């Protein structure tokens, strides 16, 4: 509770106005604001960034996921090296225009159904030799078979014993064109290929990892690098079953998608390990194996008897118990959520010493950076543990969404990632209620809001001509806005209808491929609403709306006049005629507590009456991806409800109010009045958002004349919080309080110039 410390100096509109006038009319300030806006979307992004660097790095969905999947995974694909081939070779000349350019797609004339795959891995010389037999069906007779291969030396091949005549490589298209001695008739065939290749330094395809004297071979195939390890039909739609065999140094652990079926020691201190065949067909980018001196945690089983282990380099496995148990709990939660048993028999989580992304959702053999598994619960920070848990939940969500049902093409990569993020967060939040995890989700939306408010933003979904293109454009829009928009539609439809749609989609397309539209149709079916047209507007249009609401009290309720227009952070941006089918969930207060009202604002404006409402808050749960503004009546009425709002709603309230203030849509006085209504705030994330905005004002808008009043405002806001939490951590104190203390002391010492704090901090 806030102590009575007297009226805030900022209650005087004059001072607030002066401050605003200063901020808006100082040419230097304006120039600064403009240059910052074009560089960073909003200074807030930078401020967020600084704060996060210090405190929240592992929590930020965007950063975390960027790390997980890496932005430059595919960079440099264009420059692949031509390889020697048996028979006559014809390396396509530079500048030759053919169908085999980088946007080349395989035809569906030849469909693989099963791969027998063998690798001899020589980690002393970092070389590998391979053999495969691909069961395939060809639709028409042909002498040629085209499949992907990069930096592989194909030494032999045949189809049903028909010998290879020659192999030609098209480097831009990354394919080998195998021409055989005779025509291969339509029908079922066995294609056998032998090749040699490296265990390469670059962290893609089949690659090497070294830790001291330890040597590891590992794979990373997403998005289009399976073709660097074995010749294959390397597009997500060409799903097949895989049966793998590895020859590797004896004494090393060999781990792959499936459990070990048998192992035998052979000559030269080598072991042959056979793995069971995958029970379902999977895409090539999901095939994975690794060998090395790994050690594992003790195996444990989920209540539904799925074995789970973590594997790490020697000495680290004892720190991975928390991670292992996060996998166990997440698998159970996801089985329940999807109503589909875990599809891949076992879960191995493997920490590889060198790993380009953060984690990769290979079915049954999820690969990670070691630090995302080795985090001892006793010593690791809560931020680290949240990162470990939510990463595991994200990857395990992919076992159903991505691995069991796979996108048809890379255009829908955004949905693959956004869904895993959103449902991974649902899982993390549900299993760790003490973390109050949705606050972090809402806090993360700020960066996406800021980017998306620029005239230069892009739609969530853009057609990808190749895998590289889809991966390259991953940013806060694709990851964070994508996940936020899924949460918005779930909020509008209700959790049960959304989950029913997820189940329809997964059951209908399991072991196969599907598109975003298939998911929207499943949601249509489950909810009885036209989700398809709502979602297509949200994912294919750039930007997002601001919903303005005029509020009138009448007959014991509220009449609302709503209107929408595209929201730009630049006030001078050319207005847009875009309109969204905006799925709004309004929180409102009545004499008998809070309720929610759902409506679809599909046109430029609309009216709604809510009987019994005393105040409204236009973004229940902070779950909508839109900006909003109440008129003065609505804003004043909301004062009565502020303290009843959930923390994530107060967080979204501050974030929204600050965005409107920064862009000149609302006065600074109204923003400070809003902060005043939050006096006594106790939530760490809300205090964080308030502090970000005040720190910005303190650094960029406050002038000599306003320094004193500003310092007094900061003092009056933070002093009561400081008096509650004090200087020193108490026994059993939670991490929220620790973070809060750091923030409060920082604000008092720096922006309130509080002498006692400054002395104490020394
Ligand atoms: Zn992912």
Describe this structure in words.
This protein is an alpha+beta fold. The chain has four domains: 176 residues, no CATH class; 196 residues, Sandwich (Immunoglobulin-like); 134 residues, Neutral Protease, domain 2 (Orthogonal Bundle), CATH 1.10.390.10; 102 residues, Sandwich (Immunoglobulin-like), CATH 2.60.40. The strands form six sheets. Strands 3-6-5-4-7-2-1-10-13-12 form a ten-stranded mixed beta sheet, with no helix packed on it. Strands 15, 16, 17, 18, 19 and 20 form a six-stranded mixed beta sheet that branches. Strands 8-9-14-11 form a four-stranded antiparallel beta sheet, with no helix packed on it. α5 links the parallel β17 and β18. The N terminus is likely disordered. The structure holds zinc ion. The site of zinc ion has 7 residues, from α4, α6 and α7.
The assigned CATH architecture of the largest domain is Sandwich
Strand order of the largest sheet: 3-6-5-4-7-2-1-10-13-12
Q: Domains counted in the coordinates: how many? A: 4
Coarse structural class = alpha+beta
Features:
762 residues; alpha+beta; Immunoglobulin-like; Neutral Protease, domain 2; 4 domains; ten-stranded mixed sheet; six-stranded mixed sheet; 29 strands; disordered N terminus; binds zinc ion
